[in-house]
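Reopening this ticket.

The earlier resolution said the output was attached, but the attachment link was broken on my side. Pasting everything inline this time so it's all in one place.
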Amino acid sequence: MKREEQNLGLNDLQKCIIDSLSVFHEFCEQHSLNYYLTGGTLLGAVRHKGIIPWDDDIDVCMPRNDYKKLIKISNKLPEGFSAGYYNVDNEYVYPFAKFYNDKILIKEYFGDKSYTNGVWVDIFPLDATFSNLTLRKLHFYIIKKLRFLFQLKVRGYQAPTDKSNILKYAIKKAVKPLVFGVLQLIPLKFIFNLMEGIASIKNYDKTEYLARLYSRYGIKATFHKRVYADKVLLDFNGYKFYGPIGYDEYLTNLYGDYMTPPPPKERQTHNIEIVNLEG
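Inline output:
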């Protein structure tokens, strides 16, 4: 595929997901649901006043109660939009919710498997975590291990290739196929229910710290509750969407000097393919 065609595809995809986010925003406003731009989407809002130019997805987070309410009322979403969640779709392969725009189909690749859905906004629960650092690390550690199990089950077995540590390589080569075999006997929904139960074990209203426990950033995705004490509208490609009032503290914690873009070789996108555009 020529570079010009790739850029056109990315531009179309970005426009579609930004428009989808505007529909999600309006739905949350109508139903008094709190959400915040998060991760690279929040970074884009502050640094670029919109989506990061090379990015191809949008992430938001919601306090656990708002997250649960969204799923409960997802049947009220506008025509052409839907919500994906493992407890309402037996074929769903993610531990968090997604907001789908069915006008454009995206194929996402997991190892040797692929899944096709409407273009999406990722919706992550924002949960309470422990003030005690040791317990907080344990909280993240357990979720991380459960994430590994679900990813192994969903993506399929892939033999280890890193031989820089021979002992570690040998252990992985011996153990991973056994774990994969056992996982075939365990329903994916069981793993997701376990993740959700452990992630939401703390009382949201009686905690000092909040966390995106499903985040790839690990314990760095923990923030004092003051970061989310209120929300603020941020410019985003001609729209305005909500970010946490403490976005500077959030972004500094995750990215350090967040106003300086990374070099081109470190600019990552997701392993997806545009299947079709409509309308």
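Reporter confirms the inline version is readable. The first strand starts at residue 36 and ends at 37. The chain has a mean pLDDT of 88.
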